[in-house]
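Whiteboard transcription, Tuesday session. T.W. wrote the structure tokens on the left side:
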């Protein structure tokens, strides 16, 4: 098995790195809102919709190429990495895979031009990891579909132009569907903007007899099975970003301990730090191999869900550990907001929750280990 990149893949990575350093580096770590300018630059240079077929306006590239673009951009500017995620790995894939011709013309094309931003409206106040507990409803009314309910924890919620809203068309799990909702739809509103510890903005999305065209329905039944099949792509985007930031933190720490002297010699000469950095390297390499394995095994650009779960869970955890150790190597200066070391730790921490928490991913992995599905619900007889 060859884990090296082809000359073409190396050239892609190098060209994206050059673009990112020229266009994105100047505002890296300084933004407090979504990087719309970076999104437009990515679109103008053909880096949106990388794995989406050319017939739908995408680039028709491989999943590995999309991962390489993600890592190259994120290492330079994490906020611009958000734009890569939104335009390649996130809810845009749900629209590309299941959208009607009208949705692809009116919504997908706008997203690919860098003129729109879509999120996935899934979590609710009482339905996080327990996705099937969602209460947001949808019903058909002539040529429209009408939604009622609320979504929370929507990344970039204050700035999105569309949301893929998961909702119930009926009382059963099989009745769960998904609808594309533009923010100018009647009956749609947003709650007040709030912030994660990473600094990213989010807000609630409210639907009060919210009416959108019937053609904007992506699925009105079986969405959990149908749509979750492409969630592995989003999870690999998540893992790739976490790995890229951890690698950046590691590289900065390596240079620091080469230069920083204590007790009359460079920090790198102390065996305690040597071993710590060796362990960090092992963690980063293992995470990269798991991501590449999941990408290499993807059929039709859809990775095996278990391999994607393993890659994301492992990468999330080791990336956080590496970023934390890298901060420690800087001492007090690493804890200061004058350097981005503390930002790396804060940012990576959120990806252990987003896109499937590391605990939920372990459920997926365990089910594959034992070849049996385990319900997390308390038996009905025990519910009071």
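and on the right, the sequence the group agreed on:
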């Amino acid at each position: 098995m060859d884990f090296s990149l082809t000359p073409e893949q190396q050239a892609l990575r190098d060209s994206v790195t050059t673009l990112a350093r020229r266009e994105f580096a100047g505002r890296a770590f300084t933004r407090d809102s979504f990087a719309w300018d970076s999104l437009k630059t990515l679109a103008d240079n053909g880096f949106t919709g990388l794995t989406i077929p050319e017939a739908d306006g995408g680039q028709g590239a491989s999943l590995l190429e999309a991962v390489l673009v993600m890592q190259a951009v994120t290492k330079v500017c994490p906020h611009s990495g958000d734009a890569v995620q939104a335009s390649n790995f996130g809810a845009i894939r749900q629209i590309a895979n299941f959208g009607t011709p009208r949705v692809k013309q009116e919504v997908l094309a706008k997203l690919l031009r860098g003129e729109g931003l879509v999120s996935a409206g899934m979590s609710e106040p009482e339905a996080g990891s327990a996705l099937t507990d969602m209460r947001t409803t949808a019903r058909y009314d002539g040529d429209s579909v009408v939604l009622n309910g609320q979504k929370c924890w929507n990344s970039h919620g204050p700035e999105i132009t569309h949301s893929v809203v998961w909702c119930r068309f009926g009382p059963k799990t099989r009745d769960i569907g998904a609808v594309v909702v533009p923010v100018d739809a009647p009956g749609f509103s947003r709650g007040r903007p709030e912030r994660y510890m990473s600094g990213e903005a989010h807000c609630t999305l409210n639907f009060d007899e919210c009416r959108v065209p019937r053609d904007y329905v992506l699925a009105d039944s079986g969405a959990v099975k149908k749509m979750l099949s492409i969630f592995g792509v989003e999870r690999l985007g998540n893992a790739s970003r976490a790995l890229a930031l951890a690698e950046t933190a590691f590289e900065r720490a390596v240079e620091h301990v080469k230069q920083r002297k204590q007790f009359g010699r460079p920090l790198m000469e102390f065996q305690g730090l040597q071993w710590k950095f060796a362990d960090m390297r092992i963690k980063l390499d293992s995470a990269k191999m798991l991501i590449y394995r999941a990408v290499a095994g993807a059929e039709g650009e859809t990775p095996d869900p278990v391999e994607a779960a393993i890659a994301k869970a492992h990468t999330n955890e080791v990336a956080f550990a590496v970023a934390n150790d890298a901060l420690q190597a800087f001492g007090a200066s690493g804890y200061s907001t004058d350097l981005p070391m503390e930002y790396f730790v804060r940012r990576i921490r959120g990806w252990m929750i987003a896109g499937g928490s590391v605990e939920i991913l372990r459920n997926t992995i365990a089910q594959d280990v034992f070849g049996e599905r385990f319900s997390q619900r308390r038996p009905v007889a025990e519910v009071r």
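Someone added at the bottom: The first strand starts at residue 118 and ends at 121.
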